[in-house]
Amino acid sequence: MTDTDSDLSTPDPVSRSAGVLIPVFSIRTEDDLGIGDVAGLGKFIDWAAEAGFGFVQLLPINETGPDNSPYNAISSVALEPLTIDCSPEALADLPEAEFWRILREHGIDQLRRGNVQYDAVRSLKQALLWEAFSGFLKTHYRQGTESDEAFHAFCEEEADWLGDYCLFRLLMDLEGTHVWQDWNDDYGEIEKARAYVDGLLEVEREKTERQLVHYAWIQWIAFSQWREVRAHADEKGICLMGDIPYGISACSVDVFANPDIFDLDWYGGAPPEKLFKDDPFVQKWGQNWGIPLYRWDVLKERNFDWWRQRVGKVTEMFSMFRIDHALGFYRIYAFPWNPIRNDEFFPLSEEEAAARCEGRLPGFQPNPDDSDEHKAANREHGEEIYRILLDAAGDAAIVAEDLGLVPDYVNPSLTSLGIPGMAVPQWTFDGDQIRKVESYQELSFATYATHDHFPLKAQWDQARATFLDESKRETHEQWEARQFLFPLCDFAGIEIHDDQPPAYTPEVREKLLGALYRTPSRYAGVMITDLFGMTDRVNVPGVMDGSNWSWRLEPTVTELSRNPYWTAMTEASRKGLIESGRAAE
């Protein structure tokens, strides 16, 4: 990767363009360490530019907890260490001989196979980072070198969040858990924690300082590498697209260090939805994400400083970003119990649940959309927050993920703010028909699926099998399958013979992609799995067996560029981009 020249401008994030979504951890290269990182992302950016895309869409990149979910980060600012390129070329203080020794000890050949093996990969990268950090301490720390000055400048620039983050990481490692609610009472609150660590610095100064500096050094490396990859994307004419979740983990340093701005009596989520057939709890009660609600009155008194910081840090790495669960700023579905109690509440009736929660039940806050007055209040509330986000974003473009149970005022509200919402063809209707290609509004982000859903091929194959299953003739399942397949065929100009939708062939895939590209929508985004007709899934909401967030692309980025099997599909997509006027120049 190379930095941009000083006169090179950032690509325009508001022009009509197309992009591809891939989680960083899913990128595979020949020399990766069992997980995608910024080095692989740099190569993927090169591939995306050649393929005619204008942006590369990522999931959140903040440091995660033990569930590895990008949407359950332990910090709204700190970056995930696993995204760091840990090669000797990227870590100047890592001796090459030590690099290869550590790789052999951790069985690198096995780690490069299959999906991400988080425990083993984390152990490997931690060993490499510690070795490089040890070299930094010996050669640079407090020795006035260029690296020493750059590190201390970073610490000063990021002081607003970095100190509490390092403190949190130290105590987290001491306790063996990020669940600060279970920590020792001696440091279970932020002021006590600061005093406790100050005491450690007096008793065990060298050891404690080394630990604190280590956490800060890792963030310095991560921020430096991400700023470089942003510059590389700018140079290639690619917009990097980030993602900001509406909420933050209750077990994060943010909640620990800023308790006044969070309401820990309620936990945000989403209302019951039959779409998630994998999870009966979601069907009955909804999704309980465990994110605390915000105390917007307190944030307003502070000029929304926490949100301004959160958005500002994202725009350092990304020229556009998505707000996950954008509806939450208008109103959020909330639960009066922590999700660790979901199993307890699952079999209960509403009356039984209310009895255990002092009369409270899940519902929308601050208001349900049950009257014109409440709708107007919710809209006003959301627009106030969005104006703050737009101001903090500066030149970066915002896209609102407004899927789910969408109130009728949301689209007009987002339009008035100039923020594109999501347009998923199989869920976007004019009356009782899927909206025609040409009728999509310009201020929208068209896509077939998100990381929470099966890719389009999997949806198609399942619906077609159901539709053709004689045992399901005249059932609601068959009706649903028809309602999915036939309107999509009409949307994409796919012919249906003898009342039987075709199998998902390369031709069907190309027609579906082509139709998406032809929409007037400002952005057209495709998951990498949809681009290549795969059926792999990134996340199944509610599933906690460790399979989520671990999927990796089978081919390496080099193979995407050289293997005829992959290049043929890429070229077909590029042709569609050119014909639709979306191909990046």
How would you describe this protein?
The protein has 585 residues and is of the alpha/beta class. The protein has helices spanning 38-50, 96-105, 108-111, 118-139, 146-157, 159-175, 190-203, 205-235, 253-257, 280-284, 296-301, 305-317, 342-345, 350-356, 372-393, 410-417, 456-468, 476-492, 506-518, 528-531, 557-562, 564-580; strands at 17-21, 55-57, 239-245, 262-270, 287-294, 320-324, 332-335, 363-365, 397-400, 421-423, 429-430, 433-434, 444-447, 523-527.
How many helices does DSSP assign? 22
Question: What is the number of beta strands?
Answer: 14
For the biggest sheet, the summary is: 8 strands, parallel
Order of neighbouring strands in the sheet with most strands: 9-6-3-2-1-14-13-10
Mean of the pLDDT scores?
A: 95
Radius of gyration (CA) equals 24 Å
Q: What proportion strand?
A: 5-15%
Percent helix, as a range, is 40-55%
Euclidean distance between termini CA atoms? 20 Å
What structural category do the secondary elements indicate?
alpha/beta
Low-confidence stretches: 1-7
Shape: globular
